[in-house]
Amino acid sequence: MENVLIALYYVAAKAGQTMTVSLNPAAGLAFQVYRPDTTIARAADGSPLITGRTLPDAGSGDNAQAWMGALPATGNYLITVGPTGPSGALFSLTITLQ
Q1: Model-level pTM greater than 0.85?
Q2: Burial of 3 by CB count in 10 Å (0-12 exposed, 13-18 middle, 19+ buried)?
Q3: What pLDDT shows up at residue 87?
Q4: Of 67, 79, 66, which is closest to residue 12 (Cα–Cα)?
Q5: 3-state secondary structure at position 45
Q6: Angle 27-30-36 (CA atoms, 0-180°, nearest 5)?
Q7: Letter string b/e over residues 30-60, b meaning 16 or more CB atoms within 10 A of that residue's CB
């Protein structure tokens, strides 16, 4: 199995705030947004083992490249960015809270 690099970010936010997330460039990449009760451990192969629920339309099967929504809880939201294909790319991640 090939090791895949995943970037991890935490964003502190309050319930009811609107968060906007976007990737640039989006080609070949996707992100997930996890709820504050998510935990991270290290898998046997050294990769992050993430246990938690994602927000609607920002999960692993959604291939999210842009997302906006109201946050359901106060806490630290985990955002992961990784490749959708065989190779990754340089990117910028823009996150705003209102």
Answers
A1: yes
A2: exposed
A3: 64
A4: 79
A5: coil
A6: 160
A7: bbbbbbbebeeeeeeeeeeebeeebbeebee
